[in-house]
UniProtKB/TrEMBL annotation:
Keyword terms of this UniProt record: Amino-acid biosynthesis, Branched-chain amino acid biosynthesis, Isoleucine biosynthesis, Transferase
Swiss-Prot/TrEMBL catalytic activity: pyruvate + acetyl-CoA + H2O = (3R)-citramalate + CoA + H(+)
Domain of life (superkingdom): Bacteria
Entry-linked PANTHER family: (R)-CITRAMALATE SYNTHASE, ALPHA-IPM SYNTHASE/HOMOCITRATE SYNTHASE
Span of domain Pyruvate carboxyltransferase: 4-269
Name by which UniProt lists this protein: Citramalate synthase
One GO-annotated biological process of the protein: L-leucine biosynthetic process
Amino acid sequence: MTAIRLYDTTLRDGTQAEEISFLVEDKIRIAQKLDDLGIHYIEGGWPGSNPKDISFFQEIRKISLRQTKIAAFGSTRRAKTTPDKDNNLRTLIQSAPDVVTIFGKTWDFHVREALRISLDENLDLINDSLLYLKRHVEEVFYDAEHFFDGYKANPAYAIKTLQAAEQAGVDCIVLCDTNGGTLPFELPPIIAEVRKHISTPLGIHSHNDSECAVANSLVAVDCGIVHVQGTINGFGERCGNANLCSIIPSLMLKMGKESLTNEQLASLREVSRFVYELANLVPNKHQPFVGNSAFAHKGGVHVSAIQRHSETYEHIRPERVGNISRVLVSDLSGRSNILAKAEQFNIKLDSKDPLTIEILERLKELENQGYQFEGAEASFDLLMRRALGTLRPFFSVVGFRVIDSKREGEDKPFSEATVQVKVGGHVEHTAAEGNGPVNALDHALRKALENFYPQIKDMQLLDYKVRVLPAGQGTASVTRVLIESGDADLRWGTVGVSDNIIDASYYALVDAFQYKLLKDSDAS
Ligand SMILES: CC(=O)SCCNC(=O)CCNC(=O)[C@H](O)C(C)(C)COP(=O)(O)OP(=O)(O)OC[C@H]1O[C@@H](n2cnc3c(N)ncnc32)[C@H](O)[C@@H]1OP(=O)(O)O
Ligand SMILES: CC(=O)C(=O)O
């Protein structure tokens, strides 16, 4: 088996993505996480670019890492200077990394238009920059920027630029698809030609502008490339970089390549989410391998089959990358979805039980009204228990009223809710103010229920989403409210639908409180 060296550039190319910026502390934490994951090289930044990146290299030296080598990134020297006087090259050496990676121009068009120098001058600056670095740094990598576009425009010159790097004794030459326009079938003949002229180990760095960055990286490995660059979650300039969260499992589980241990591979989803969290971005649900939906089964035909054998609709075992299989319920469900959910909620249900069909029909009817249970599993659990007649009625709401008013000269509107809640034989009448009508209703319901169920105090409303569903033929538009609640142990979602937003919120809130009481009573 060939071992593949993984080179992560989340902290450099990843930060070139719109909306992504990491503090030095974030970069250090991500570097430690990637070290635990087993990444071989971490490109920490461009020290010649900004003080934050200089400080990353100062700080990371104080941290003991298991096996990862830290790489600093920069460019070949500027045309009008010499390597020893070039500020960028000097800063790279001063940052004292394990590895230096510099990029240089391969494409004659770029040499003429971007650098505005002659083709020979460019060969000199690639060669003497790398020779100079090799004298000061143990391991030096060369990123051949725009390699594939350069090769297509002028193959002889593109190869000469790689030879200029090879003659300087670099440790790896990385073929870059900088503009991300290369398609997978174009790589094998080009890489085969490169291998006739270059014996230095080769790497790949692909961008995702044609949505082929992962495919191109895998094809390159299939052509004998041994060093793969990419980022966690595919963050990177424009449409992003090659996504290591897809490349790593494909290399290990499909191509039989050595890179991480199985245990490290099983932490991939956690690493992906950690990086999303520090980037302050919502994880992409539909991300292959590590996303929430990567192994979520919705169609009844799929659910029925995966219950017989999971591989019928799963390309790998989700546990291999730290993910799980999930069954969703919707109007595309069959009995298998209902039975799978019942099992998840510890509810005994038989496929031949007429109640299974009844629940399925009720589900489809509610989805037709605008309900959606994919993000509201707690409401679906309650729906099943109501249908089975096993839900303990912890409380009922006799009625509520919400007032929202604003007077001239007042900054904010005033919101107040009153509710009448019945618990056993007692009716509790409470009123509360809130920051908006739904918040007031939430406060009033809590105030009433806390007298009977003090554990309600532990519960918080974490997220509130409203969606106005377009009117169908002959029907008014309706509002769907999804609420996420949580306590110290769990988070759960509930849903309410009505043509009135307060009423829709009321249904979702009542389910949220019901579910809290149900789960606490099941646990006791
Ligand atoms: C393919 C990639 O993703 S490469 C990485 C790209 N990342 C970044 O650019 C982020 C960090 N960059 C920066 O902080 C800044 O651009 C700096 C500090 C590097 C340079 O800033 P400035 O000196 O103000 O130059 P500016 O950004 O305007 O232009 C880029 C300069 O680099 C030169 N340059 C570009 N590529 C190379 C190269 N491979 N070798 C040498 N010089 C290069 C350009 O010719 C231009 O110099 P000039 O204006 O003297 O002709
Ligand atoms: C080096 C690099 O980031 C690129 O060519 O895209």
